[in-house]
Amino acid sequence: GNHDEHTATLLGMILRATYKDNPRVEVHASPNPYWYYKIGKVMLCSTHGDGPKIADIPRIMATDEKEMWGQTEYKVCIIGHWHHRQSVDVNGVDVHIAPTLAPNDAHHHAKGYRASKKMMAVMYDINWGSEGTVEVTEQYAKHATAKKVENKINK
User: Fold this and answer.
1) Distance separating alpha carbons of residues 155 and 139, to the nearest angstrom
2) How far apart are CA 73 and CA 42, in angstroms?
3) Which strand (E) or helix (H) includes residue 144?
4) Are strands 93-97 and 74-79 parallel, antiparallel or unpaired?
5) How far apart are CA 146 and CA 83, in angstroms?
6) Residues in the chain with pLDDT < 70?
7) Burial label, 54 (beta-carbon count in 10 A; 0-12, 13-18, 19+)
């Protein structure tokens, strides 16, 4: 579920075992709630977002990954806890709050939380930084997926 760290860790372990012989797939199955990756001049971070204050994310990134922090020019962290889209610059770190495709569970429904179902792609050039974001609705994602499946069947 949304806040089930144990299931997420187990799923990571299962995916790692499933793709262990595939050189094109790298699965990070750590129970650490922060995930970091360096590609070119870009430092990527992701976390659920229910722990840190947004203002603390740059400090956490710099503390957790000192070497990576110093080696990169562009820093980005993607979180999803609030289930709505927002992008802010926090002391030089692009923090993106991603929307969700997940339906409301009983807890979120009872609390009155309502969000449109969307997914977002954040694009970074490995040398030049941010290229922008793209967001699509749940309906578009379903339509595009169905079209791709249909095209593969008709080939």
Assistant:
1) 25
2) 6
3) helix 138-153
4) parallel
5) 25
6) 1-3
7) middle
